[in-house]
Amino acid sequence: MESLVTLRVFLDSLEEGVLFLDDGRKVLEMNDAAQRMLGKVDGSFVGQLCPSLFAGTACARECEIRGHCSLMRAQDESRKIQDVVLKGPDGTDISLRMWAMLLPPNDSALTCAIILRDRSREIELETEVRERWQLGGLIGRSQTMQYLYQKVLRAAASEANVLITGESGVGKELVARALHDNSPRSAGPYVAVHCASLAENLLESELFGHAKGAFSGAVAVRLGRFEAASGGTLLLDEIGEISLAIQTKLLRVLQEREIVRVGENHPRKVDVRVIAATHRDLATMVKRGEFREDLYYRLRVLPLEVPALREHREDIPLLASKLLSGLTERYRRPDLTLSAEAIAALEAYDWPGNVRHLFNALEYAVVQAEGTTIRPKDLLREIVAAAVPASPPVHAEPLPPGAPLTRYYQPTADPSAERALILKVLEESGGNKAMAARRLGMSRTTLWKRLSHPG
User: Fold this and answer.
1) pTM for the whole thing?
2) What's the pLDDT tens digit per position in 114-138?
3) Residues 12, 33: contact at Cβ < 8 Å?
4) How far apart are CA 352 and CA 420, in angstroms?
5) CATH-assigned architecture of domain 128-305
């Protein structure tokens, strides 16, 4: 009996709603969240047929026609999850996402569980993200960046620690700043520490502060970054560079929410949201004994991975335009623009240094450009060279869905066959011309020309 009470408490603590059905699709039990989502909290839904709770929806109609749970027996993966909109008691729309889970044989006649998730806040976030191309200093309208914005906004609402990972130059600090600016702590201080730039003894003092006379040169009391960030956010950039000794002390701070200044013995409470960032593979460092496993999981409560620039090339024109506007203002050349050929060259390059690399390349071009337009000749040689496709390998097999971004294009003397291949790759890329062009090993401009002027 005690175990049943514990199970009930657990179910009622879930954010998702849960309906338990028998083989005849009758509701045998439901948790509190399901009752709230469906508009009643008196338990009157128990005993009713599941389709009656979702009357008027496509899911309920299909369930009634087939005589079984359409979610449970759906063959198509896309139909195993259904989005439905119900009318609440006050007439407002209730948007729910629902899916089914088959239960193992049991003595309670429970056959399956229907899981419900309230999509209201999710839809708000999706709409908010969809309507903007920028989040703080982050720029991009690709699906990759929109997904990142959504994750950032969700993480911002939490107090949990965040670990931001990604290659050098992708903008991890911009993500950290966006997290702070969109969080309940946005009115508090935002403090960043670049851990790799400080020696171990200096880093300890920098993070936790020190008392007067704690060491040679400590002529006055100094507040550490944890105390300076109280009520706000502390970014520990390049966290993978700190020593095991500092890791141990940092772990204690995260666990106890208190620091001890160098040269003191008594702890001081701190109220800080910690964000860590690194370009290193901390999981591998843990296996090698170079990074504490307990600290890794303490920091990685909410992981955020920032994509490399080559993973969202379709954002390069927008990003380049934004970066160029700042550079032209600095160099007092407000009329300077990028030619279509220069943009195509920028899109074709892999950018091993990511956004920082792009910025430096644009600064070089601004200095080199003689007229009002930046052309390929004004770009670095390696960038222009990447825009000229090498002879691609023969690839006679069709492009499978979800195939990696590689070159599938083989020049042919038959324009109709070439056009058919381009259209096929474009379809399998979901209409994304930039992705299709990369898979074919041609620039987006070339792809457009081949489609507009076949042969």
Assistant:
1) 0.59
2) 888 887 756 665 555 445 677 888 9
3) yes
4) 33
5) 3-Layer(aba) Sandwich (3.40)
